Amino acid sequence: MATQDTFEGKNTSSLSDESAFQKGSARVTYRRFKNKSAHALFLGATLIGVVILAILLYDIFQRGLPYLNSDFIQNFASRRPSQAGIQAALWGSIWVIAVTAPLTFVIGVASAIYLEEYSQKGFLYRFIQLSIGNLAGVPSIVFGMLGLTIFVRQLALGRSVLAGALTMTLLILPIVIVSAREAIASVPNALRHASLAMGATRWQTIRQVVLPYSLPGILTGTILALSRAIGETAPLIMVGAVTYVAFNPTSLMDEFTVLPIQIYNWMGQPKEEFQYLAAAGIIVLLAILLSMNAIAIYLRNKFQR
Amino acid sequence: MSQSNRFKRKKTFRNTLEGMIPKILLACAFLSIITTFAIIFTLLSETVSFFQEVPFLSFITGTEWTALFSEAQQQFGILPLVAGTLLITVGAAIVAIPVGLASAIYLSEFAPERVRKVLKPVLEVLAGIPTIVYGYFAITVITPMLRFFMPELNFFNALSASIAVGIMIIPMIASLSEDAMRAVPDHIREAAYGLGSTRLEVALKIVLPAALSGVIASFVLALSRAIGETMIVTIAAGATPNLTANPTETVQTMTAFMVQAASGDISFQSIVYKSIYAVGMTLFVFTLVMNLMAQWIARRFREEY
Amino acid sequence: MKHHAISVQDLNLYYGDKHALKDIKIDIEEKSVTALIGPSGCGKSTFLRTLNRMNDLISGVKISGVINVHDQNIYDNEVEVEMLRKQIGMVFQAPNPFPKSIYDNVAYGPRIHGMRNKNELDQIVEKSLRGAALWDEVKDRLKDRATGLSGGQQQRLCIARALAVEPEILLMDEPTSALDPISTAKIEELVQELKQNYTIVIVTHNMQQAARISDKTAFFLNGDLIEYNDTDTLFSNPEDQKTEDYITGRFG
Questions:
Q1: For chain A, which residues score pLDDT lower than 70?
Q2: Nearest-neighbour CA in chain A from C9: distance (Å)
Q3: Can you give the residue ranges of the ABC transporter domain (chain C) (predicted)?
């Protein structure tokens, strides 16, 4: 079988029909071995992430879980570890997010609609796009400087919930815009044309066709961006969220603290017990973030077309 | 002329309102441009007044940073902070690039769909963990582990922080590189398989070269993120400006200094306050250059499939 | 003699530098079916889209000339495309129902034009679905998602959706090219019924289809309107050599 002989290359062993494609030469064997070892190596590298996540969660849970009880949720900050809790920080985070969420959603989606549905692809479009791209890469602490200068000092909002929330809004806006644009761009043009051909205006088409279609994607992106805002520490330190607060905010102009800052504060305390409180705080923070992630993933899967 | 009104609506309030919608949307999109300029302007204004007191040359060439010392001993040479930042970044790159790239290759080229469905969300969770948690992980797990092997190691050291920063950016490299590799169309892979290539050969000789611009851009973006990372280094690397290339020593990064200075009680008129802006400006320039570089690489060397 | 529903004079269209329609002059008769045929890229679809100004959506398109509908030039400055498109409906190449219920798809047009009354909407939905020969198949599941219908049903739903705003003219852009032969036959049958009440302009790739369903046929080539005549005459006795070459399959 001359043809199979050439296919097998330099194989010296005698050929039978069955083995023609099965027995490899030494070189093929070596290539397959390399392939298999690389496969194992790459899988191993990917599993590093899983292992680290497991260790991290284990470490935090075994330290923090014993301290996690209803007193911990209900108590305010205290110099005595046994009485310290996260109520003020929890409410501070809720206040900040309650302001940030509607602002980023409205401004982010409006920007995305403008860029995808209205804008001419000219100079202004490119300039806005460039700005958003670069803002997404600006370190969060620099947004903190911006918040400190503009909101805390220039607009004289002080170290308030409002100043913190506005800073967070600017920080996550690029993420919301980018994901909303992706969602809007995924709406098939055929649907826009169908609507316009019936005499709908652009805005009617956006309201009735484009937004309902892209809403799950937009919401997923917004929730993920908000979960980033909940975990951010540095910008709020710059804005001056206070580390020791023993009351819940009652208005937008109140001083406040948030979960990550409370955790950071405990980490810096010399008493060993505060480290465990920090771990308990992290558990609460992670629980919030993971439930937000779960909601986002649920939305994405439920409405995926 | 009733004929000429055939294709004309009555002017109503609603129609007028609809005409304003694009302008409102544009105003929202314009906020991103305003934010960009506001960042540059706020950083610049205080930086300029900083340089009226500290010569520019001694700022960028000075090897002592003692901003928080008493006035007589203050020195504003930024090199120690830059060195600390770069030390952490290089360490993070050494950890994250091999692991992140290997994960990307595995997920894009080797992983069965079932495995991918499990591993992707794990990486997403890892990417969503707040940096303060990684900071906690650094001082409660990584540092003690390192000290087990190197008993002389400082409690606060660059090594532990850079490992934690590296872990933080692994998901970013993995997912951005994976995106770039999955964008390589299947027919190119099939051509290579058709010639008898193994998976490894397809991955390394076909897919990776084709996706190289995206992969390298992901490295640059991730390292820019590492440069701007704040909480991990503030918690784990220490607070001593130190011009060194030795990762076992305590160092302070640009971001860590900003947090340290902003946490203290400083007057808005003081030179220390202004120095935060000068350091912030330096940080901003570093990350901006890297982000522009990443965009340029992605555009310049993009393969047209 | 029938009235002219649409009267086109000296229509020229440019995509950037490309001269896509050249000096088109054509009168389209009321309550009849006019087929536009020609090879790919000849300009027939582009021409169809000038009739309800869908080309306005593409940047870089320049149009000159006059298209009169009821003695009103639709390219006049004071014409609002929304009102124009309400009166000149369109059905597209691939069925494109909205991801909404069957009912909401048909009610979409009347609603955006301001109808809120539930009874009236119900009536229009039923009338339009009957008009598109779909009512019997879907009357028990109006609340179901339209995307669950078969391709042929989806296309008839799109026709019903276009009918619901009560246009006078219906533009169809290769409406059967994505459908199987049985669904195609149903749509062709439907077109025959619709011409009692509507002026229909249909772009088709399929010359047999044009011959079967149209009263008049226009043959386009490279942006020129080569020949326009009664369908029977055009297919049996073309005046222009190029038309003959095309319909006998010598090119295209």
A1: 1-24, 304-305
A2: 23
A3: 6-247
> How far C206 CA sits from the closest chain B CA (Å)?
32
Query: How far out from the chain centre does Cα C158 lie?
Result: 12
SS3 letters across chain B: CCHHHCCCCCCCHHHHHHHHHHHHHHHHHHHHHHHHHHHHHHHHHHHHHHHCCCCHHHHHHCCCECCCCCHHHCCECCHHHHHHHHHHHHHHHHHHHHHHHHHHHHHHHHCCHHHHHHHHHHHHHHHHCCHHHHHHHHHHHHHHHHHHHCCCCCCCCHHHHHHHHHHHHHHHHHHHHHHHHHCCCHHHHHHHHHCCCCHHHHHHHHHHHHCHHHHHHHHHHHHHHHHHCCHHHHHHCCCCCCCCCCCCCCCCCHHHHHHHHHHCCCCCCCHHHHHHHHHHHHHHHHHHHHHHHHHHHHHHCCCCC
Q: Is the pLDDT of residue B12 over 70?
A: no
Give the count of alpha carbons within 13 A of C23, CB side only: 1
Task: Please determine, for residue B226, whether its predicted confidence score (pLDDT) is greater than 90.
Answer: yes
Amino acid at C210: A
State whether residue C84 sits within 8 Å of chain B by CB: yes
Residues lower than pLDDT 70 in chain C? 1-2, 251-252
C71 contact residues in B (CB cutoff 8 A): 3
- Tell me the shortest Cα–Cα distance from B178 to chain C, in angstroms: 31
Residue C212 touches partner A, C-beta closer than 8 Å: no
Give chain C's domains with CATH numbers: 4-247 (3.40.50.300)
Task: Give yes or no for C107 touching A (CB within 8 A).
Answer: no
pTM of the model: 0.88
| Cβ-Cβ contacts under 8 Å, B203 against chain A | 38
Please give the interface size between A and B, counted as residue pairs whose CB atoms are below 8 Å apart.
242
Kindly state whether C178 is in contact with chain B, defined as any CB-CB distance less than 8 angstroms.
no
For C110, nearest residue in chain A (alpha carbons): A198
Question: Which CATH number does A70-304 carry?
Answer: 1.10.3720.10
